Model the fold of this input.
Amino acid sequence: MAENIETLLKTSTVYHPTDQTLDQAYIKDYEAAYNASIADPETFWADVAKELEWFSPWDKVLEWNYPWAKWFLGGTCNISYNCLDRHVNSWRKNKVAVIWVGETGEERIFTYAELARQVNRCANALKSLGLNTGDRVTIYLPKIPEQIVAMLACARIGLIHSVVYSGFSAPALESRIKDAEARLIITADYGYDRGKPINLKTVVDQAVANCPTIETSIVVRREKPGIALTDRELDWEEWLAGHSTQCQAEPLDSETPLYFLYTSGTTGKPKGVVHVHGGYMVGTYITTKYVFDLKDEDVYFCVADPGWVTGHSYIVYGPLLNGATILTAEGKPDYPDPGRWWHLIEKYGVSIFYTTPTAIRLLMKYGEDWPGRYDLSTLRVLGSVGEPINPEAWEWFHRVTGGDKPIMDTWWQTETGAILVTPLPCVPLKPGSATRPFLGIEADVVDKAGNSIGTGGGFAVIKKPWPSMMRTIHNDPERYLGYWNNIPGCYTAGDVCHKDEDGYFWFMGRADDVVKVAGNRIGTAEVESALVSHESVVEAAVIGKPHQTAGEMIKAFVILKQGERDTPDLITALKTHVQTELGKIAVPREIEVVTALPKTRSGKIMRRVLKAKELGQDPGDISTLEE
Ligand code: PRX
Done:
């Protein structure tokens, strides 16, 4: 998208809201609500926090010791209590909380009361293992309800969960377990990929063999007969059996860590982003409610995987805090056929549908016939997340869903915890723009020195702390400081952004060495280290390159060891090696063998120059280039 921002701005259509049924209070006077929230953010956030239940009130809303923030100081709460008990103690007790549909067609439905019973049983089982507040639990599960149950159970008793996406390979899982020093791992025998069972347990065995902190593994057995388990491995059902379905949620200080979630940065080592109970609860609660105009009668379908932050914030925590009915489905959007999601929308009467640009572009390829076969009239609000959405995909999504549903292009990050720049269903939309900052969020586009650019291109920053912001990077506070030291006085998101005359934000992609492949965040340095760990490779450089469906794809340039030949077999072997080291999502689509890489005089690879050359663009300033 970066190349054609001028054309984009000139040709952009404005869609005005048509839905008269939107009923959140802020919608009546959006400008006034935003201005008030910015004039006094502490009052705004405290008012939001009061909509949730606290075991004891906070003494102070915010302590801001740049760049360290604490929110709702002295208050005690528990996010799991607010996701479950708050509803179980109300008329929502028998309301459906989660509808889960498996890849192979199974369906499981949990009311709030049933979900609470499952979570309580799991929390008691966790206690029986002698785990204490602050201990870490790695959750490496496919997209099955046990993932949600395990997360909420950890939260309930003050354990910190570290969910690892089940597509990551053994070394990637191992490094995350080690960094978190997890005592327990919860996993499954199999996940499924297009109906084909994927053996997860062998991945775990390989990873855990090198992780002495892991004392026990819990295994959800999906296939019959159940796979064999050792003494240190327990079957999920047997582990839960006999435990009480009652378990009081632990009153926790609002700043108690809730989870670590590992995400890619510019070095080879993933960062363990730390989120806490109080502020994260407030941020995910209000954004889910306002951005999607969430009402009790809605059926909310978010296609993410809880292995990523979107799943944490907008499948599990945000919607459950609101007492919503959530639909979650295992599997790909085009398996068994490209009607998969449209069918689910019709079958369950989905009214809010939150998806990704990559998925939309994939479905576009199959044509309008597929959505045309289904009754999508229940849809009310749509959402997009994870990468810039190109106007063509936006228009297609808008058209095939009836032409009158607002699309919320939500911009945020693992680090921000919750949506920060987004439309609300009441604001005029411009396809391709995430529009404006959410209430209480002071975002801007600035130059390198931190000066606001007014209109034009620059770096996306957030100028004030917000409740759901990450508190630190586990084991690496220096890296946390990096976000706030980059551009003076503000949080630098690492995104290039354009601000137009209406103050609308147009996110253009990453400013750093992070690539967004199908919305997944991949550090080029991670792929490079995977490549150089192969015996035939001496050096590697990795760039992101535009891709029609995935938004970006990975291209790698490698220098081979003397005597190694550039053959198709070797290229395949390198791809397999990256898959083994990191996982399928990080495999370069293209690998080119080269004899030299552009470097600065100090020896740093100039990926920017490689990228410009690859795209046939001007490489810009190359005065520091060595050769
Ligand atoms: O580059 C931005 C892009 O995704 C990055 C954050 O990635 P991650 O932490 O994996 O979180 C993904 C889910 C929130 C951002 O720095 N990004 C996310 N949403 C958008 C986006 N880029 C453009 N438009 C969006 N709506």
About this structure: The chain has a mean pLDDT of 95. Residues 263, 309-310, 385-388, 409-414, 434, 493-495, 507, 510, 516, 521 surround adenosine-5'-monophosphate-propyl ester (CB under 6 Å).
